[in-house]
Prior knowledge:
single chain; alpha+beta; 6-stranded antiparallel β-sheet; 6 strands; globular; disordered N terminus
Amino acid sequence: MSSPSAHPLLRRALAALATGLLLSCAGDFEVCEPVAAASLAAMPQRLSDTGLFADGSMTVLAEGVKPFTPWFPLWTDGATKRRWIRLPPGARIDTSDMDDWQFPQGTRLWKEFTRDGVRVETRLLEKAGPRPEDWRAVAYVWLQDQSDAVATPAGQRDANGTPHDVPASADCFGCHGGTRSRVLGFSAIQLSQASPPDHLDLEDLIASGALTQPPSAPFTVPGNDVERASLGYLHANCGHCHNLRRPESEGARCYAPLNDLDFRLQVGRLGSPGETPTYRTGNSAAFNPRKPDSSRMIKRISQREPGWSMPLLGTELVDKDAVTLLRRWISEMEDD
Length: 336
């Protein structure tokens, strides 16, 4: 067996961990537990070796790789994102729990970030084993000439001269560890909006037989436009941490809030806005109907103070559009 020094990827990770470089873990976050060295060593060192692109290209997708767009995106300081998934040939997604899909071993998902017109990173999330928790992740930082991207398990601040911070591999499960599925943007609710012809959506998965227990139709988030957008925003930006179905901590999660709020939408509780976990747990605790100025939620999303503002991880800028949206939602909310 070769020594750790034989693996440049592992060597970079260990060096960063030795100096305590774990991006974004501050305040309410505990220090993220380092990812297992063997897991990091097994990840490809270059994006071109991950199977995202066809051989010899960094723009043409490989066969079997499909783009998708979640209905409700995660706020990442205005970065533009593209997302792809590849399922093993012939494999299906276990949808016996429609709120927590279980993916077959060998599944890979990628997410590319462009900030201020510069392609800065592409993240890889891979199902490496048969258990629900057998996922590993790493971010690939793009070279200045955009010819390839290099695995950077320790993360990187201000990547490629932009304000964008690339997370450490350990940080990834600060969010992804909050659900049993570990996959956040490729789900029954997130894929229920009709997508462009070349993007996967729930109807495509149903038609192709990719789901073990397919629903009869896509799901509808309840309410008017403001209610629907607000529920979706909280689902995508807060629900991975704030939900009552969080798996027990396995050590690789940096943030574990008290289980008193649940902003994660569930397919069986979409009859009306008031039926959702968001309303049932957030009323008075996170928001006060018709009183946005006294709502804790508004105070925490309206500023960026380490360890106190929300979301806690992966953002340095206030999402002003979201603040406006949620203030209107609360202002128009009927009190129970």
